[in-house]
Amino acid sequence: VTTRNAVRTLDHALNLTFTNVQGPRGSRLELSRKISGTVSGTYTAKVTFQRGESYSETTINRSFTINLGGGNANLNISGKNFEADLTSGELK
User: Fold this and answer.
1) Residue 27: strand, helix, or coil
2) Are 2 and 28 in contact (CB under 8 A)?
């Protein structure tokens, strides 16, 4: 991304592992409640920022686990927990 006199670059990788993930089957009612399983993985990125002669570099490493079931997604991202409603997509 280039803005004014600065350039920001993001080089990233996302690795996913799906364990017993099942999608909806049968009727189309309440599809979000019919999704279950676990998605785990890692996100790594190298972020560089350059403005004129100034240059900085940051590395991001995050591991995560997403447990799906009962219409919810329970997320653990590097030790922080979140819960989301799969019907609305909103965090609880």
Assistant:
1) coil
2) no
Kindly give the confidence (pLDDT) of every residue in the chain, 92 residues in length, as a single tens digit, with 9 standing for 90 and above: 888 789 999 999 999 999 999 987 777 677 778 889 999 999 999 999 999 899 999 999 999 999 999 899 999 999 999 999 988 889 88
β-sheet with 54-69: strand ranges across: 2-3, 6-22, 36-51, 54-69, 72-77, 80-85
Structure tokens at 8: 């920001």
How is residue 46 written in tokens? 């190298």
- Write down how long the chain is: 92
Q: What is the DSSP letter of 89?
A: -
